[in-house]
Amino acid sequence: MKKIKLIQIGIIVLSFIIPIFLYSKLPEHMASHWDMNWKVNWYMPKFWWIFIMPIISMTIYLLLTYLPKIDPMKENIKTFGTYYDTFITVFLWFFLYISLIVLSWNLWYKFDMNLMIIPSISVLFYFVWELLINSKRNWFIGIRTPWTLSNDIVWEKTNKLWWKIFKIIALIFLLAIFTWINIFYVIVVPILASVIFLLVYSYLEYKKINKN
């Protein structure tokens, strides 16, 4: 087994072990969800919470690992496999990190979630950029529209543009730490706007190529 696969499995195992180890110290009902202004709006019995994050992490790992194997263009995925494996590893670390800060919030210190989560999202986005800019046409990874999937040039141009947009969105995330902007406008609006823009962009690029 590849070393990176062992690391990924190790992260998942840790995500189970740490909350189980801290189980007796956790409150019976744990803060488990925050609203757009990072105020707690949902509590959950600790027995259920300690398993939810690890199970989600393990499920995502299995999907990310095995879905590319049934991709009709799986040979293309192999060409950027190193970047893909790195992304999976970082994604699992991200989930473990989120689990740890929720545990910390419930156990010790009621810190500002903005300060803890937004920088980690920006780090995650960096590795998404790396993945996008090196990806080749496939059905599971990257910006997949009817037009990117139909043409290698449209795929490459659209994903490189998404890579540039991601950098701007990540910067907005970081700046949000120092503002009182509602988190909905910081995260959801830029992503939705960019998705719509890229959908139109890929269509126009495809039409341009097919006119020549």
**Largest sheet composition:** 2 strands, antiparallel
Shape: globular
What number of domains? 1
Structural class: mainly alpha
Number of β-strand runs? 2
Number of H/I helices: 7
Low-confidence regions? none
Radius of gyration using CA atoms only: 19 Å
Mean pLDDT: 85
Report helical residue fraction.
Answer: 55-70%
Within the largest sheet, what's the order of strands? 1-2
Task: Give a short summary of the structure.
This protein has helices at residues 3-21, 46-66, 74-78, 81-107, 113-134, 152-176, 183-211; strands spanning 29-34, 40-45. It has 212 residues and is mainly α.
Description of the structure:
With 212 residues, the chain is mainly alpha-helical. It has one domain (3-211). Helices cover 70% and strands 6% of the residues. It has seven helices and two strands; from the N terminus they run H-E-E-H-H-H-H-H-H. Strands 1-2 form a two-stranded antiparallel sheet. Strand 1 (29-34) and strand 2 (40-45) form a beta hairpin. Helix 1 (3-21) packs parallel to helix 4. The chain is globular. It starts with a helix and ends with a helix. The relative contact order is 0.10. The mean pLDDT is 85.
Keyword list:
mainly alpha; single chain; 7 helices; 212 residues; globular
Helix and strand layout, with pairings?
Blueprint: H1 3-21, E1 29-34, E2 40-45, H2 46-66, H3 74-78, H4 81-107, H5 113-134, H6 152-176, H7 183-211
Antiparallel strand pairs: 1-2
